[in-house]
Q: What sequence folds into this?
């Protein structure tokens, strides 16, 4: 994690605060290629003093200390770590390498195998606030005597390091999730200091006392603080993220009114519901709602409903075979299935993974249910049946390739995951909850402004499941039906972005406590324990939370899609948001941030969205389900491409 250290807070002279820390810490300057500081523990490890440590020159091989190949490897690894950590701002953990391969290590003559975490920092001078040097602070997570690597040339070691970086995103990054400490993390830090016999930082103790008195140990930092202080975003992008994540309405309104010419009287009339009939989400039900209501109680199969239980045609089957891969293109399935991607994929997965057989789902009722659901998706640019199929495929990969189903050890997990993904946006109106609330839409009235869309999605799902021709679950016991319904409701309601920070923070809190508890009770914790693999989620509430996180990841699954596919999804979402902005203009409303097609949309906010929403989500998930790291790497890759795109746009 990149950190900027202000000149009046953390100058070199103030590093004395870290001198007594029990873990070895030292700083290596990438610009001067010299060590510039180390705490006492690091100096003891390297068997040296601070003067000798700083004097070591890494610009050329030290005679008799390293070979030319080792020095070339050192330079190559230094460049890689510099690029990954300081430029790309990703923490990296490099395991099990000899001191020769690690930037900034002191050649002690002692064979060491080290597990080192690199974090980028910038030390600032007191003269004009200019950057004095860019450095890497390194924290040794474990050190033990062993033989250093031998018989390996620089290229082999470099390939191993690259492979290690591509297959590992360690828990020190992933557990952190959102940037900034949660109260529970502060509490664990204070307790760990006491256990280690150290004097805890009294400032941390006082801060922890305030948080305990406040009564919320799971809350993360204020949303506005996360977005406005920690990210270099323009005002529209920042306000869009604040609105998306449920930040202060006062903050949002104040900012927007500065640049708006809309009168207060217009807002008052809109909020009173004056224009609620002027939009497609008003009193007149949508086409999808009409279809479901008209067919209520009908047991006959409509003439346009094909028999999707038959073997798929070759073109469809070719696409369906890619459903077991991390990279998937739902648009291909739309074309191959002639406009029926959701029912085709849903039926295929239920059959292939024996879910239909295990729960005795009758093929005819399964087919009819899937087609009723598919017909219930409106023809919107983004929240469509194609999106539902994409989310279903992402959920499938998380359940299977990602290891969620085997980890949960619950027979209902696959069924709950599939059904929730299939129905999570059923009858979506093409506008967000804020619009429904501000226009006093019937859904907002019905659900008291509490996640009206998400409540509607899950309600419509269970209405369909009650019908005779769609009654899939008749063979389930009452206990299983109750548990399945609870899981599905929790999962779908969790897709409301207003709940995002709460769910992420709660997940991280549980993860931190479980990791800490495991490490305290297990002598010599294994590497698997460190990355969350040993954590058990046996409590029903914890299982529900894990499934909520899974559907949230699947809902944003296109962030891990191939670049061209991902761009197509973003273009569809941008058009849908522009259409809401058009409607807001027609109703004389304040146009929501990034929804005015005359000013540019979400394509200019993608890096901010990745940093604030996506990366914390996927990193937190991969701290527990490490088999899903290919998805995380794909998300990181698309984030880099958006960063390059934004930089190219700003240079024009």
A:
């Amino acid at each position: 994690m990149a950190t900027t250290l202000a000149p009046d807070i953390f100058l070199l002279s103030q590093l004395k605060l870290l001198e007594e820390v029990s873990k070895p810490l030292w700083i290596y300057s990438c610009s001067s290629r010299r060590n510039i500081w180390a705490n006492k523990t690091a100096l003891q490890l390297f068997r040296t003093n601070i003067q000798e440590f700083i004097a070591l020159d890494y610009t050329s091989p030290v005679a008799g200390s390293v070979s030319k190949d080792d020095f070339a490897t050192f330079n190559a690894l230094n460049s890689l770590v510099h690029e990954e950590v300081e430029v790309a701002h990703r923490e990296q953990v490099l395991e099990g390498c000899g001191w020769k391969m690690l930037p900034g290590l002191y050649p002690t003559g002692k064979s060491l195998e080290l597990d080192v975490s690199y974090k980028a920092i910038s030390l600032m001078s007191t003269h004009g606030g200019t950057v004095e040097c860019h450095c890497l602070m390194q924290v040794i997570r474990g050190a033990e005597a062993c033989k250093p690597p031998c018989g390996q040339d620089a290229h082999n070691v470099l390939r191993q390091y690259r492979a290690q970086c591509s297959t590992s995103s360690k828990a020190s990054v992933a557990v952190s999730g959102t940037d900034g400490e949660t109260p529970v993390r502060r509490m664990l830090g204070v307790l760990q200091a006491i256990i280690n016999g150290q004097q805890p930082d009294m400032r941390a103790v006082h801060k922890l006392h305030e948080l305990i008195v406040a009564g919320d140990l799971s809350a993360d930092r204020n949303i506005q603080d996360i977005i406005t202080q920690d990210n270099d975003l323009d005002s529209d992008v920042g306000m869009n993220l604040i609105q998306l994540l449920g930040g202060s309405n006062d903050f949002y309104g104040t900012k927007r009114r500065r640049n708006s010419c809309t009168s207060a009287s217009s807002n008052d009339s809109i909020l009173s519901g004056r224009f609620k009939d002027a939009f497609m989400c008003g009193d007149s039900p949508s086409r999808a709602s009409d279809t479901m209501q008209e067919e209520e109680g009908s047991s006959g199969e409509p003439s346009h409903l094909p028999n999707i239980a038959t073997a798929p045609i070759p073109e469809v089957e070719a696409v369906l075979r890619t459903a077991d891969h991390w990279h998937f293109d739902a648009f291909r399935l739309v074309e191959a299935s002639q406009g029926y991607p959701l029912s085709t994929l849903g039926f295929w997965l239920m059959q292939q993974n024996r879910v239909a057989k295990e729960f005795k789902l009758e093929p005819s009722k399964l087919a009819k249910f899937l087609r009723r659901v598919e017909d219930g998706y409106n023809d919107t640019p983004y929240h469509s049946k194609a999106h539902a199929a994409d989310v279903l495929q992402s959920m499938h990969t998380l359940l299977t390739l990602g290891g969620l189903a085997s980890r949960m050890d619950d027979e209902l997990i696959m069924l709950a995951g599939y059904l929730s993904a299939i129905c999570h946006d059923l009858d979506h109106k093409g506008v967000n909850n804020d619009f429904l609330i501000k226009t006093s839409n019937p859904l907002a009235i019905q659900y008291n402004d509490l996640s009206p869309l998400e409540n509607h999605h899950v309600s419509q799902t269970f209405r369909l499941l009650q019908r005779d021709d769609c009654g899939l679950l008749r063979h389930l016991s009452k206990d299983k039906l109750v548990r399945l319904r609870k899981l599905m409701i929790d999962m779908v309601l969790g897709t409301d972005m207003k709940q995002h920070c709460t769910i992420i923070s709660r997940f991280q809190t549980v993860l931190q406590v479980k990791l800490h508890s495991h490490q305290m009770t297990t002598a010599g914790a294994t590497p698997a324990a460190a990355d969350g693999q040993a954590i058990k989620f046996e409590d029903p509430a914890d299982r529900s939370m894990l499934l909520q996180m899974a559907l949230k990841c699947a809902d944003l699954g296109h962030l891990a899609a191939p670049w061209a596919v991902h761009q197509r999804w973003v273009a569809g979402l941008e058009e849908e948001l522009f259409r809401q902005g058009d409607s807001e203009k027609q109703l004389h409303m304040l146009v929501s941030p990034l929804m005015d097609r005359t000013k540019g949309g979400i394509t200019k906010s993608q890096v901010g969205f990745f940093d604030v929403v996506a990366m914390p989500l996927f990193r937190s998930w991969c701290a527990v389900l490490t088999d899903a790291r290919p998805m995380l790497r794909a998300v990181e890759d698309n984030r880099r491409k958006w960063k390059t795109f934004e930089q190219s746009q700003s240079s024009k």
